[in-house]
DNA sequence: TTGAAAGCGCTACCAT
DNA sequence: ATGGTAGCGCTTTCAA
């Protein structure tokens, strides 16, 4: 492994000069610079970023810690973050907490000394104590969660508003018995969406105890929920799933069960992942601009790192909008 | 930022002892260890992985360089890689070459000193000179590409076999005039798939000059290809798209144009991204176990790093299988 | 403009 | 079992 010292020796200069030349600093004569560059090329020198990071006390890398790497939601999110980070010439270090609290702490700690800051999407349990982490002083932006004590800067989608919109919409399109498939109780968004659902159903349909099935936001749980529901024999005319993955699955299951989606049975989701536009009928959902969510978080973090942003209380909330598609075309015989 | 030196001082021991205790080595008395741990906790000490990496000459991190972070293919791939890497207690550093050759080189170099090895999915142009990279000695596994000079270990899906299977299948289901939407010419898989398509069509249908439209594997190009095709007035009864993203789009466009997918018009893709199962009718495609592709690559890299694998010539090829769904149910009036 | 040398925070070797 | 110390590869004062 060739080091800068070898390059310096080969070029017959000191490491200091070599370093300057290779970093494109001005105070190096043209001829020395050329000698050094030639030597570097001859030896196939590639700088060791690890060492560089250590001396410069910065890594030009930002860490991202997500509960999972699975599915389009995260894919889109990472894409947004990458876009922002890459535009600034920085790199992305990806951590995965795999949902567990312990792994989250571990993941955060593993980032120390390897990144300049963190974008993190913590489960609720972690969010509450996040500012307690030894890394407290560490630049950190929280995604879609209630920051513990409200102290950490955050970016989030207004889940409550989004869920209210979509439930309201279902009602307008004729739904009277709406079932909700919720996300995991450890997830802040899941709770917000469920709460909003209950509120609207209670207020508009006078139903204080609607059916709520517990899902987990992942593949498999939409289908499972629907099959439980069908077995139970409950009557219902619409399903509002906590996210699109479950909604799309629910839609497929209901179609298989013989319902005409959009006319006999309305289905809606949340997130607006790309998939939602491609299923047929298209899935009505809450468009939350996932890549933008990531992009905003990254920008905020970069500002934080540069010191151009206070490290407290900056909460950005994205207000989502409805994406209306065929899955809520309208219940055929509107019953009052 | 609290360092190990401060912890040592606080505990009244040397840094050496502190290091041992904190790394769980055996040769430390119980009492000293406790003193040190207490001191570390009191000071909120978090080890600096960057420095650690430097001394240990290893990072326990593997780098992944992809042409793009967009879409389900990469999402699934990363998921597979993560699964393997995480199982070994290591971390993932994500690089994005954004398709350009220059950025790829840059991305590779930026990894030096920050990762123990690289999984890379290079465009063709880069693949050929990859082993020339100064990082040559660096553990590296190539994904889905022809490794330059065939020297680098690789994992890939047998695109040719997959494409042959699916084209054959289209013919069996009655297709006689098959159109191909290809991927970008810079992509090895794209070329393999197109070649296989041409071969089968020539052999089985005696058509030496089938219609091939150029796409780019990304959103938008499936639709564009179909609209060009429809405008041209060409007759055709089946579309084989180079990947699922384009196939799904093509399917939607054709449906909008009034074709009954599966009976009047057959459509097939390649990859089997999750989306393919959810569209309706389901998309017939080549199932290539994307996560497994990533997992195998990661395992191979880890073996390489550990030195339990030679660094040359190890090529793993995954043989894909057909996933038959509604989009190729069968042409209604089978013409000979 | 150039060089010498002091670290960055940590681990691991060699003594004790 | 513990401590002293020499690096890991690089950047960056400070002098010359």
TrEMBL record, chains A, B:
GO terms for molecular function: DNA-binding transcription factor activity; transcription cis-regulatory region binding. Gene3D superfamilies: 3.40.50.2300, lambda repressor-like DNA-binding domains (1.10.260.40). The keyword Ion transport does not apply. The keyword Transmembrane helix does not apply. Pfam families: LacI, Peripla_BP_3. It comes from the Bacteria. SMART domains: HTH_LACI (SM00354). CDD domains: HTH_LacI (cd01392), PBP1_LacI_sugar_binding-like (cd06267). PROSITE patterns: HTH_LACI_2. Keywords: DNA-binding, Repressor, Transcription, Transcription regulation. SUPFAM superfamilies: lambda repressor-like DNA-binding domains, Periplasmic binding protein-like I. Residues 2-56 form the HTH lacI-type domain. This is LacI family transcriptional regulator. It comes from Aurantiacibacter spongiae.
């Amino acid at each position: 492994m060739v080091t800068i010292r070898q390059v310096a020796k080969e070029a017959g200069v000191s490491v200091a000069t070599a370093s300057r030349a290779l970093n494109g600093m001005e105070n190096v004569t043209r001829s020395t610079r050329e000698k050094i560059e030639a030597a570097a090329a001859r030896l196939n020198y590639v700088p060791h970023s690890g060492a560089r990071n250590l001396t410069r006390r910065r890594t030009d890398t930002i860490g991202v810690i997500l509960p999972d790497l699975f599915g389009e939601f995260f894919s889109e999110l990472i894409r947004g973050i990458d876009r922002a980070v890459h535009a600034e010439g920085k790199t992305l270090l990806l951590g995965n907490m795999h949902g567990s609290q312990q792994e989250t702490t571990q993941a955060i700690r593993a980032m120390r000394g390897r990144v300049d800051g963190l974008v993190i999407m913590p489960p609720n349990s972690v969010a509450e104590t996040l500012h307690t982490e030894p890394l407290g002083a560490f630049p950190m932006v929280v995604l879609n969660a209630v920051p513990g004590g409200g102290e950490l800067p955050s970016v989030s989608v207004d889940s409550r508003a989004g869920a209210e919109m979509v439930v309201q919409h279902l009602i307008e399109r004729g739904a009277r018995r709406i079932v909700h498939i919720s996300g995991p109780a450890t997830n802040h968004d899941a709770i917000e969406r469920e709460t909003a659902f209950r509120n609207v159903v209670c207020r508009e349909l006078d139903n204080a105890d609607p059916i709520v099935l517990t899902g987990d936001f992942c593949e498999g749980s939409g289908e499972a929920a629907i099959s439980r529901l069908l077995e139970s024999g409950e009557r219902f005319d619409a399903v509002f799933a906590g996210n699109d993955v479950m909604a799309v699955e629910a839609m497929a299951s209901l179609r298989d069960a013989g319902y005409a989606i959009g006319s006999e049975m309305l289905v809606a989701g949340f997130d607006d992942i790309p998939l939602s536009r491609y299923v047929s009928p298209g899935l009505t959902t809450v468009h939350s601009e996932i890549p933008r969510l990531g992009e905003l978080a990254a920008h905020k973090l970069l500002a934080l790192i540069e010191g151009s942003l206070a490290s407290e209380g900056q909460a950005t909330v994205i207000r989502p909008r409805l994406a209306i598609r065929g899955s809520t075309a309208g219940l055929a015989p509107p019953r009052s």
